[in-house]
Recover the amino acids of this structure.
């Protein structure tokens, strides 16, 4: 039938081919004009040329730049509305802290100034910070603090699962809501695919306000899949914050010793909670289009806090500048002695990769700790493709072998520490909603360094000569995966 149709209309097929080629041409122009990253541009161009139809679908699912979309223009406008209400305090607390502690921070002043001017993120000095190792320590502290909540609890999570720990937390939230505590819960609809309708219904029935950040109707065709809310934040009464790498899932409390999960979280008390509240409320208003009353109960900063730890927050997302990527590179280049990095996924953007290499070549002690194998063959292969050039630049690389290391931490010299949600990969540093806490405190730095050194006992160090002996076919696959890394 098709042959007969084409024989009667011989010009149909050439016309379709011409239209297809014209479509490819105009799509290529769009990719070139709309994609800022050169390697990503080339990757998408290769896809649409060498994978007809499939490449086009992949681009529209993963590659469309929603930073320019009205979808995020709305959010940016709402962010500014909230910021305008609190900018006086942000300015005052930032310059007060900087004035009192400027000499102590002088090595990192470029990073500090960038985050303040580029992301409205102030330095705050009246904080207490507690390092929490793994879900066992985190959730014990979370339940203790939430039990004593008086006014509100705000939660924002990438993964929330309908398992034992998820239901225990839900039970507590239901009870606190019935006691009159205001509870708002944001979750990522992609990451929290296992949260379950019954759990959500139970929360809503108890008066908990619940919303996904980006509602996904068709997961396979979710064209906002790039912009995931990868943050993990709990804010209690405007003065207490939990944040770091640990999601709400049983695997983080290590019920199975053969599948050990290593991670890190922070518990912050003090004025540093102020900026986390700004981030949460910005996303809440974006997700729900409801503006809660911005009273002092939410921005509950105090001048009489007992803590002395300085913190600053680096946050990124499709509505902001790439603050995490640029502040990470800036901080690394500020190092004088050492840089110790832990990340579960290492597919760095060029800016961060060059900063790491430059620092190591300059003779500093630069160490990278990563899982020996990740949860994706392609991602793992792409990460492996970077290790030879790092080793050539004198970076020491350690494979964590006890289990899966999911922490996202960095320490620099004896003052700077970073604990956050952002992996050292393209998705976290350019696309997702992420948040890292920068801590300027020698005691916290020493504590996180001791954790790093202890974890080295469960690592094997890789060396350049041995690494080069990998099978040629494996090396080829790794470099092939690297070509796709901007799209992973």
């Amino acid at each position: 039938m098709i042959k007969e149709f084409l024989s009667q209309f011989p010009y149909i097929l050439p016309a379709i081919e011409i239209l297809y080629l014209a479509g490819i041409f105009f799509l290529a122009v769009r990719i070139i004009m709309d994609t800022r990253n050169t390697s990503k541009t080339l990757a998408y161009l290769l896809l649409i040329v060498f994978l007809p139809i499939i490449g086009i679908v992949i681009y529209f699912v993963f590659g469309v730049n929603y930073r320019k979309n009205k979808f995020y223009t709305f959010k940016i406008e709402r962010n500014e509305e909230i910021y305008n209400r609190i900018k006086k305090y942000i300015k005052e607390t930032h310059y007060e802290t900087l004035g009192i502690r400027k000499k102590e921070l002088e090595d990192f002043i470029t990073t500090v100034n960038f985050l303040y001017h580029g992301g409205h993120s102030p330095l705050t000095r009246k904080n207490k910070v507690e390092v929490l190792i793994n879900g066992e320590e985190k959730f014990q502290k979370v339940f203790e603090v939430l039990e004593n909540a008086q006014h509100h609890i705000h939660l924002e999570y990438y993964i929330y699962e309908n398992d034992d720990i998820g239901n225990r937390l839900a039970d507590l939230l239901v009870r606190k809501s019935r006691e009159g505590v205001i509870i708002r819960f944001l979750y990522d609809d992609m990451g929290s695919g296992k949260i379950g309708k019954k759990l959500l219904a139970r929360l809503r029935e108890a008066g908990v306000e619940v919303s996904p950040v980006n509602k996904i109707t068709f997961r396979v065709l979710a064209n906002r899949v790039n912009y995931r809310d990868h943050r993990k934040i709990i804010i209690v009464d405007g003065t207490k914050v939990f944040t770091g790498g640990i999601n709400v899932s049983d695997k983080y409390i290590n019920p199975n010793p053969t599948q050990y999960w290593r991670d890190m979280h922070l518990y912050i008390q003090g004025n540093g909670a102020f900026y986390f509240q700004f981030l949460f409320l910005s996303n809440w208003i974006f997700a729900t289009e409801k503006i809660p009353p911005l009273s002092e109960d939410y921005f509950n900063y105090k001048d009489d806090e007992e803590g002395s730890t300085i913190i600053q927050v680096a946050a990124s997302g499709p509505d902001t500048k790439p603050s995490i990527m640029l502040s990470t590179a800036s901080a690394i280049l500020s190092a004088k002695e050492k840089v110790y990095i832990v990340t579960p996924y290492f597919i760095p953007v060029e800016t961060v990769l060059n900063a790491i290499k430059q620092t190591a070549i300059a003779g500093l002690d630069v160490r990278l700790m990563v899982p020996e194998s990740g949860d994706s063959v392609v991602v793992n292969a792409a990460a492996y493709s970077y290790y030879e050039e790092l080793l050539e630049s004198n970076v020491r690389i350690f494979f964590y072998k006890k289990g899966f290391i999911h922490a996202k931490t960095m320490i620099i010299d004896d003052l700077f520490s970073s604990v956050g949600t952002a992996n050292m990969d393209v998705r976290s540093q350019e696309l997702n909603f992420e948040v890292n806490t920068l801590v300027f405190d020698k005691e916290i730095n020493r504590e996180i360094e001791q954790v790093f050194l202890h974890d080295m006992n469960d690592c094997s160090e890789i060396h350049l000569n041995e690494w080069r002996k990998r099978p040629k076919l494996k090396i080829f696959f790794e470099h092939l995966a690297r070509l796709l890394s901007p799209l992973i």
Summary: The CA atoms of residues 468 and 478 lie 13 Å apart. The chain has a mean pLDDT of 87. The longest strand covers residues 124-133. The two ends are 42 Å apart (CA to CA).
